[in-house]
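As the work plan foresaw, the team has encoded backbone shapes as discrete tokens. One protein thus recorded appears below exactly as we store it.

:::
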Amino acid sequence: MEQLNSTVVTSNISSSPGYPPLESWDSRGLVPAVVLSLCFLLGVPGNIAVIILKPNWQHLSSVSQSLMLNLAISDLLCLLTLPLWIYTYLYSWTLGLVACKLLAYLMYCSLYGSLLTVTVLSVQRYLQVVYLQKCLHQVGRKRLLALLWLVSMILSIPALVVRQVIEDQDWTHCKSDYLSQTRNVAVLLIQSLLGFVSFSVVAFSYIRLHRKVNQAAFFSNPQTTRLVTSIIVTFFVLLMPHLVMNVLGMAAFSLNNKGLLTFCINNWNITGALVFVNSCLNPLFYAFALLNNNNVNAEVERSRKSNH
């Protein structure tokens, strides 16, 4: 994920005499800018509504409810950074070095927070169903969330180190500036390993859950099961292209393959934008689950009245 907003190709636009030069804009940044704009418009009000209303969570355990709320907060923090990144995709960075580092750090904290929350959510369901693990008490839940955010903050530290404001002709970038290819590969390796390890943990948890599904009273509410499953599966489906691109980037740096590196540079922004799409989809899942649950309840009520 360190390659988000990392490379921009500029095109100069002349200005009329007597006026300051017009800012050029990057046509390659148009697609991710449009995608992120839609994410912001849909995701911010959606996640705010989720945080306030907590839809269709009555059948979840207290730990799962805390994790779902934490996921909505992570998504909201991530989406709130989008307007500045959208501008950066199309125009130069104008906010200075401190803002560049802090904004990148906040973005990665929220992304890692979402990743870890989804992983812990799947593990928690696995433990509760397969081993009938009891829910944590309130203090335990707070400690779990605090630990989750502490790990996210630690994992995001590289963003504070490598993010720099770099001048490139008439263009200013807020992007990662590595001292060597070795450091570049190391950061990509850590990020990729974290993503694939989380994916493996989630896959293992749900394979085991599938084998126990017929024995688990916990799955008596199919709407809740579909809600959590949709959130977890969609997260990793949208994250996987970026992880694959990171692996290709490591190969390009290690083999000094300029053609492969060019391919990665041209596609990192697009796959990075897909990661943000997940943050605006979760509220839609909540809404559909709530609507479906209301329809089921209405059908049950009509059936009861007809029987009487």
User: Anything to note?
Assistant: The chain has one domain: 27-302. The mean pLDDT is 75. The first helix runs from residue 30 to 53.
